[in-house]
């Protein structure tokens, strides 16, 4: 059992480290009103993102899957007012909500939003490589493709971070309720397996509730 699943410990961590301020809280509420799915990173993972980006001293960052801008704000805060975050989103409604969020959080000067399918925007961004960090949090079946891009375009010393890598608790299942879930789980497994076994990376899965895979490129 991961301790993070213990309610007492979760409450303690949240009360002590207070990962979510009013700016972030407002995004969850506004997204709900706009009928945008509440699939933002968890409050603690938002904080983890900010810290990882800050530790990597990342100033050139890519995010795959903007939604309403919650994780983008965490990343931008970790950049400490320097650099550029390219964030990619396929849904116009999410893109617009995120623009509002970045403005409210006063990080819009650090963020370049891209509307479109991640793989085609990533292909465009390649000319600006290498990047210091990438946060992967969009369609799960494309995680292996996003990894292929990241392996090529993240600098030595840079980091790859991916969310939901316990596949909502299904990562080690052998039977699946739907074919869609099976495809998603197998893609996330492939992602984890490849980064874990790539000798150019030191990688781990941080056992946060959702599972946050982190790899640092070392060669
Ligand atoms: N990172 C966001 C956060 O924590 O605030 C959550 C992202 S949400 C889990 C995934 C987002 O990826 C959705 O807004 C979805 O529309 C977008 N998405 C899905 N497939 C995509 C694709 N192929 N290209 C770009 N965005 C995509």
Which features characterize this protein?
219 residues, alpha/beta, Rossmann fold, seven-stranded mixed beta sheet, 8 helices, 20% strand, binds S-adenosylmethionine, Cation-dep_OMT, methyltransferase, transferase
Secondary-structure blueprint:
Layout: H1 7-17, H2 22-33, H3 43-55, E1 60-64, H4 70-78, E2 84-89, H5 92-104, E3 111-115, H6 118-125, E4 131-136, H7 143-153, E5 154-163, H8 179-196, E6 201-206, E7 212-217
Parallel strand pairs: 1-2, 1-4, 2-3, 4-5
Antiparallel strand pairs: 5-7, 6-7
Helix pairs in contact: 3-4
Bound molecules: S-adenosylmethionine.
What does it look like?
It comes from Fluviispira sanaruensis. One of its GO terms (biological process) is methylation. Keywords: Methyltransferase, S-adenosyl-L-methionine, Transferase. The chain has helices at residues 7-17, 22-33, 43-55, 70-78, 92-104, 118-125, 143-153, 179-196, and strands at residues 60-64, 84-89, 111-115, 131-136, 154-163, 201-206, 212-217. The protein has 219 residues and is of the alpha/beta class. The chain has a single domain (3-217), classed as Rossmann fold (3-Layer(aba) Sandwich), CATH 3.40.50.150. Strands 3-2-1-4-5-7-6 form a seven-stranded mixed beta sheet, sandwiched between helices. Helix 5 (92-104) links the parallel strand 2 and strand 3 (111-115). Helix 3 (43-55) runs parallel beside helix 4 (70-78). The radius of gyration is 16 Å and the shape is globular. Bound molecules: S-adenosylmethionine. Residues 39-41, 65, 67, 70-71, 88-91, 94, 117-118, 137-139, 142 line the site of S-adenosylmethionine. S-adenosylmethionine (SAM) is lined by residues 39-41, 65, 67, 70-71, 88-91, 94, 117-118, 137-139, 142.
């Amino acid at each position: 059992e991961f301790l993070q699943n213990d309610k007492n410990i979760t409450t303690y961590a949240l009360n002590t480290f207070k990962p979510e301020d009013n700016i972030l809280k407002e995004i969850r509420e506004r997204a709900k009103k706009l009928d945008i799915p509440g699939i933002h990173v968890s409050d603690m993972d938002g904080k983890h993102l900010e810290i990882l980006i800050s530790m990597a001293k990342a100033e050139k960052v890519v995010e795959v899957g903007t939604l309403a801008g919650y994780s983008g704000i965490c990343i931008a805060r970790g950049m400490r007012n320097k650099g550029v975050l390219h964030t990619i989103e396929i849904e116009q409604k999410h893109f617009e909500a995120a623009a509002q969020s970045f403005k409210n959080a006063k990080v819009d000067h650090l963020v370049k939003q891209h509307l479109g399918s991640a793989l085609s925007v990533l292909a465009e961004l390649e000319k600006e490589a290498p990047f210091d960090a990438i946060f992967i949090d969009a369609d799960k079946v494309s995680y292996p493709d996003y990894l292929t891009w990241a392996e090529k375009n993240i600098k030595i010393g840079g980091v790859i971070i991916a969310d939901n890598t316990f596949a909502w608790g299904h990562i080690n299942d052998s039977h699946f309720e739907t074919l869609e879930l099976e495809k998603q789980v197998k893609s996330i497994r492939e992602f984890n397996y490849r980064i874990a076994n790539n000798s150019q990376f030191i990688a781990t899965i941080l056992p946060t509730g959702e599972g946050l895979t982190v790899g640092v490129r070392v060669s």
